[in-house]
Amino acid sequence: MKRISLLVFFVSLLGCKQTETISSKIKDDVTFLADDALEGRQTGTDGEKAAAEYIAQRFEDLGLTAKGTEGFYQAFSFKPKTDPHQEVNYIVKDGDSSITGTNVIGFLDNKAENTIIIGAHYDHLGYGAEGSLYRGETNEIHNGADDNASGVAVLLDLARKLKSVNTGNNYLFMAFSGEEMGLLGSNYFTKNPTIDLQKANYMLNMDMVGRLKQDSTLAVYGVGTSPILKQVVKANNSKFKIIENESGVGPSDHTSFYNSDIPVLHFFTGQHEDYHKPGDDTEKLNFEGMETISSYIFDIISDLDDNGKLAFRKTKNESEETPRFKVGLGVIPDYLFDGEGMRIDGISEDKPAQKAGLQKGDIVIQLGDSLVTDMMSYMRALSSFNSGDKTKVTVKRGEDKVEAEIEF
């Protein structure tokens, strides 16, 4: 897959110069991937191809071996879904409106029996593809610095750290495309692996790890997918307020590997008001926090280095229990909040919450007749309403309780 000229073009636009003397290139990697020149890295576009070329070059510079189907690349073609519930069709004929995405795969061969898979998706929404939450009048580039140039930058930093240590496993580093369209790249890899998946030890996934907050809250999902993981996550933590979730199923690429009976851990610093909007830019990231997360994941890998192949354990699929609802408040929940109620992390314009005067930081404690104690009880309460219904919402604002009228 010859893409050198395309990469050179974009590098010249950015004035980006590789420097071997910098110990951590996290900021450099995010800056390149989230620049306007890559036009949001939507799957199948020139910007996605330039990002793939950049990542492949970084893999090569780090001394990784190519492990795609064509060098570092694993291309997959698919026909976009018209029904969100249908299976994606990867088998397409030329000229039938198919899109081609590319996974980028590098391998660190320690001649070990088993392989750890470390992954992060690099695609995003281009000028505002399906999934964009931007409501402006014109298309704008969705650079996806946090989502998910941040995860790719941490992946590359881990590759640098693991080059000559922790040799009890091999390492497969994967930058996925097609995640925003439905975990397509990771799903394709698990059905068309370039290693023996029976020898896959466990999978680590980083998606949106760029905005560590002042309270250092870090979500770690999948701790129930192997009996040892909860202990290891806790034992190696000295800097984070960890929010654990046992389930191996979630809206990112780790799900594809969990569904292949591979233990997983997924790392996430939380949603924010710029999620899936043009404002998700490089200057808003916490690079020191990203380096701390990289070191924490490295410590987990080090702790597990001599544990052999981890046992896989099925977890409860919480998404199957999630209530369905026809209306919304128009808020971004704080998924990392572990207090009582549902904390609002952002307010969408011209939606019921804004019209009712709710504010960022408010904690919803009652919706209608239902008490709200956590995210699940909030969703259950919301599921009982239809468009046009009116009800009262009670929030905790600082030390005060505030009641407001909501119309859905």
UniProtKB/TrEMBL annotation:
Pfam families: PDZ_2, Peptidase_M28
Coiled-coil spans in chain: none
PDZ domain boundaries: 327-399
InterPro entries according to UniProt: M28_fam, PDZ, PDZ_sf, Peptidase_M28
CDD domains: M28_like_PA_PDZ_associated
Protein name listed in UniProt: PDZ domain-containing protein
PROSITE patterns referenced in this protein's UniProt entry, alphabetically: PROKAR_LIPOPROTEIN
